[in-house]
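Section 5.1 Outputs to date
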Amino acid sequence: MGSRRDRASTRRQDAEREGHDGGDGRSERVTDGVRRVLGRAPRDVAEFVRESAAAWA
């Protein structure tokens, strides 16, 4: 069993090899999944909040 540093390095290398950036989203691919599933363009968070604010009041 390797050290904690060795295991972290291995996980990071595995993530990079699989195309992940470690969780911050910088290298994630943009897809059309929302459009295909919902039949509409995705909304940004600000739009969602404006349209849903009354439900939280």
